[in-house]
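Need tokens for this chain, all 534 residues.
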Amino acid sequence: MTRSEWPKGYISLILHAHLPFVRHPEHERFLEESWLFEAILESYIPLLQLLERWEEEQLHVTLTVTLSPTLCSMLSDPLLQQRHASRLDELIELTEKELHRTQSIESLSPIAQFYHARFAVIRDYYLARKGDLLAAFRGLQERGRVEIMTCAATHALLPLMAHHSPSIRAQVRIACDHYRSCFGCQPRGIWLPECAYAEALDPILREANLRWFIIDTHGILFARPRPRCGVFAPVLTPSGAAAFGRDKDSARQVWSRDQGYPADPRYRDFYRDIGFDLPLDYVQPYLPGPGQRGFTGLKYYCVTNRSEEKESYDRNRALQAAVEHAEHFLGQRTIQIKKLSRILDQPPILICPYDAELFGHWWYEGPEFLDALVRRACSSGPQFELITPELYLDRHPSLQVASPAASSWGEEGYLRVWLNEGNAWIYSHLNVAQQRMSKMASAFPHPNALQKRALDQAVRELLLAQASDWPFILTSGTNVDYARNRLQTHLFRFTQLFEQLSAGQIQLPELEFFEKQDNIFPKLNYRYFCQGVA
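Here are the structure tokens for all 534 residues:
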């Protein structure tokens, strides 16, 4: 494409799909496993259906999607696949009961019919692919319909490991190794967990041959030297990776709790679920966790105005709102691009990254918003083009060299959500474990088979303890006991393995139990934790 053929600007839609590794084979039903099941039902399958529909209709669009290594591990786990299939059967049985219960309730009956039909379609899709959603994503990438990024192995907050580079290396390199095993190719981009960046990451990103990453707006705006194009063009870090900055205007229109699109009163209310509203003995067999109320996915009310009693959900009104908001979103981006194209010497790029689970799970009509957005964007003409960061770099390889500022997204923009008075205690324990892991990795250059198994499992336990999800949950105040227990469990198991390896007395039954419980990353290289190993 020549300069004269450039569009006036670009929009890059980036969906970050991630969940912490939650798998409890010791229980028949476990509440926190429902996080995965809900996301598959409401976000991941609807996204795949959209991508496949756009492909069938030959719409020329490629989305960028992160599939974190922990999510990939769960999506490909046979136990969780079987449990999700059973969960779909339960939900369809529940909707059949709801069809009978609501048949004489004019305001609710159409919604029950909608859920019954929708869940059946989702189950058919899942079973037709034998639960292997990763294969569906891989096929779409191979056909050029989606670009899949990687992420740190367990979504660890990498800047908080700046004093221990082997931990950063292990998180990044194990993620890249796992990506190749899932998708058959080398990742080109990486989603830095929580968009958290520090200069210490640069040499390891270069070592892993990662070409680009996403950071929050102020990470670019406060770069040194000051970027000439602000956040509307990537900068090239001194190590050679490109840093793209999030566009704050498009973020606010979607993310804002009070002003964002999901707050529209016509959309489905997330919290009014029959798992809480109906008698316990009626919903008990269908609740995600034994003996406690929870979400079923059947919700009959819309957001409504805050001062009013909730109104019944009207699917058609909600879909109309999604179309209106897609048109508004693109209209605002078109205005942005027109203004920027008059003052910049190259087409601006608007980076629009969102959590994938926002679309469908938290914002039920989010997939329909995406569908309307993409269809209108494809017919926008020369005003702008939907593009991936990778394609942008191929088309515009000349970038300004600058060092981004240390930053993250979230409250205050500088890691506060993950490092504060409520969760700071975590890091002293992690620091000790990280130093011990490096010591063990160096002490066993040629382990025997049993030692290798113990070293690999020690890495798994440490990686799982490093996940940013646990300090986030401690700050948000949801599922606090579970997050604290997971941290303590992984650190305990790591310490047991460290002491056994140090004493030369590995307890095989205990090791086998740990391997069964935490079976993530079946093939990994523990020597990434060695000091100075590239």
